[in-house]
Amino acid sequence: MGRRTALLALALVSMPCVVVGGDAAACPCEPCVEGVGMRDNASWGFYRLSDVYAHTLSSYNACFWPRSLACDYSHKRTHLSDLDAFLAAVRRRLARTPEAPPAADEVVWHLRLGDTVDCDDAFERPCARNAKYVLQRPFFEAVAARLKPRSVITLIYATQHAGCKDAHRTPPERSRAYVAAAIQLLRSRGFEVRERADGEPDADMTYMCRARTLVLAGGGYTRLAGECARAFDAARPATVLGLAAPATDLVELPRAYRNSRRDAIDADKARRAAKKQRESSP
Question: Which parts of this chain are annotated as the region Disordered (predicted)?
């Protein structure tokens, strides 16, 4: 167990939970750790649904959104990554707040933007940071080639999503430029493109869960959406396109792009490992 993890574990038994904008009884919060930017619930920028789903030390984040999917799920789950509990939370939300599902022939396409778009031309080349989250032109071209002609595509994204510590704020203009380039490419292929931009993450998640065709980006939120879409309607599992599980249809990338993306991801991992080592040194 690393030093930070140990400190957080100690906090679970030593600190009271302070809830912003809600009733503590509504959500079984883990203690709120001092100095963590995710306590800011003025917007959805620090909301961490997939972290709450998969990591017990992140469920204190649910404290600050007491009527959220994250909070509901935290209250009911029996283990980490409890998909049954998450599906039940999604269904309870839909029962409380009915929302129209995607059309049967609609392609729902998630873009992981915000803090991960760390360079000005992120649509054309992997950025030095967070390369695993953001996909480039060759991925869009490969997916477009597999879709039915003239399909309706709905892009779901958030330009304001922030890093956990908000130490590396990324200008939203970079995300908007990425979206503009993606739309231009898809429309040039004859697709009708719609947008769900900067919406409530829970509403976006329930929308993706009910998609018949879903395209994944990188990261935990998109992976959770893929798992949910595959399991939401057992009689008619969704078609999920992506680079890895939980995709049902794996997208093959051109070799040159695949190699450049892998190199960028490896370099980012090495940079993070070196930083972690420096921080842990006495």
Answer: 261-282
pLDDT at 11: 38
- Residues 6+ away with beta carbon under 8 Å from 103: 152
CA distance 131 to 153: 24
- Six-digit token string for 164: 């956990």
In the chain the domains, ranked by start, together with CATH numbers, are 3-96 (no CATH), 106-263 (3.40.50)
What's the pLDDT tens digit per position in 51-94?
Answer: 899 986 567 677 778 889 998 998 889 999 999 999 999 999 99
Paired with 152 in beta bridges are 106, 192
Residue located via tokens 């309607």: 233
Cα separation, 85 vs 73, in Å, equals: 6
Instruction: State how far the alpha carbon of 236 is from the alpha carbons of 94, 209, 211, 212, 239, in Å.
Output: 19, 12, 11, 8, 9
- The segments of the chain whose pLDDT lies below 70 read 1-40, 56-58, 60, 162-170
